[in-house]
Design a protein that fits this description.
about 230 residues, mainly alpha
Length: about 230
């Protein structure tokens, strides 16, 4: 079975799939190290920091961790057919925009949550969608735009109705979709030669950068009147 083969590949190092679990681990370490550094140098002095912001920062970090393996897979092969590239741009753009729009919107309001979610979703969607040309770029841009808006809107709509539970459900569903993307990329490339090999530098830089920006946005960024 292809699914069984995919699971077996996760435990090997010959193909890029053998690096996905390590990518998750490296991203987790880099992201939480960044959070720990910021917490002990600045954030611990903020009143009610953990009760007010901890949950949403935690899941924002995990959201980036889920996206990193797909980024590594796409970089390993660089070019994809149009339909595959469109799925890559749409999935990465929509899921990253949706999750970050929700978790930032839950503490900053719909406008700033939408702006941040759209920014993250469009940047990642366009970057990874360009592996198939302009169609993937357009798909990534549209998906990031829509995902950011929908994530922040959902957070505000559920502000007084099980907001944290909704965030957990959204995270689980988006995570399942991103794992599905990992599997799809495996089925599309299992007979192809890898074109690009890299270490963990890109994963570390992206994890640190996105974590720091997201924490700043959640804690110190502008907020809508409802959340001010």
């Amino acid at each position: 079975m292809t699914v069984k083969n995919f699971i077996n590949e996760l435990q090997k190092s010959e193909r890029v799939e053998g690096e996905l679990l390590r990518t998750i681990f490296v991203s987790l370490i880099a992201s939480f190290a960044t959070f720990g550094l910021l917490y002990y140098t600045r954030l611990q002095n903020i009143e009610n920091f953990i009760p007010q912001y901890g949950y949403f920062i935690f899941f924002s970090i995990l959201s980036y961790v889920l996206v990193m393996p797909a980024i590594r897979q796409v970089r390993a092969f660089k070019k994809f057919p149009c339909m595959t590239g469109m799925m890559i741009g749409m999935t990465i753009g929509m899921m990253s925009g949706m999750m970050l729009g929700f978790f930032v919107g839950a503490v900053s309001g719909m406008f700033w949550g939408s702006v941040f979610g759209m920014g993250v979703g469009i940047v990642l969607g366009v970057w990874k969608g360009r592996c198939c040309g302009v169609m993937g770029v357009m798909e990534g841009m549209m998906a990031g735009f829509m995902g950011g808006l929908m994530g922040a809107m959902t957070a505000v709509m559920m502000y007084n109705d099980h907001l944290k539970a909704a965030g957990l459900i959204l995270f689980v569903v988006c995570g399942a979709i991103l794992i599905g993307l990992n599997y799809m990329l495996y089925t599309e490339t299992k007979h192809e030669e890898r074109q690009f090999s890299e270490g963990d530098f890109t994963t570390i830089i992206l994890s640190v950068l996105f974590t720091a920006i997201t924490i700043w946005m959640i804690v110190f960024g502008p907020k809508s009147p409802l959340f001010a």
